[in-house]
Amino acid sequence: MSAKVHKLKVIIPVKDKNEVKETRMASLSAVFGPKGIKALDIIKKFDSETAELGYAPNTPLIVKVNIQISRTGKTENYKMFIQTPSISFITKELLKVEKFSKKPGKEILKTVSTDIVEKIYNIKYHKCDGLLKSGRIKSIVGTLKSMGIIIKE
Predict the structure, then answer these.
(1) What's the pTM value of the predicted model, to 2 decimals?
(2) Which of 16, 18, 22, 125 could form a disulfide with 57 if both were Cys (CB 3.0 to 4.6 A apart)?
(3) HEC string of 49-88?
């Protein structure tokens, strides 16, 4: 019988270089500890992989972890996949917005040009080849509309 694969999705902020105490440990220990993975190992791997990406400190990155568990319930190994920040986080940073509209479609927060959509696309999908660009652009436009942001042509 083959091993089971458990999939976990967590959001981990990029480490601040001035941070003395590791504040991310407690929450990650609660997630990975029961699976037999040391949170410190996850944090070290995350920090080494994100060091050259150039994200600002405390930028929340989406991390997907596939954990292979044996028949006996022990963790055999795991793979970690780091993704870019969410579209809403990127939008907040680009537009300097604190909160989004509570009534999208009725309450317009901002009107932006298509250049902002392109910037969001380039940040979110910088590693993608462009085969699915039109679909991803539509997804970004839909997300912006749901936040109360209108795109002018």
Answers:
(1) 0.76
(2) 16
(3) HHCCCCCCCCCEEEEEEEEEECCCCCEEEEEEEECCCCHH
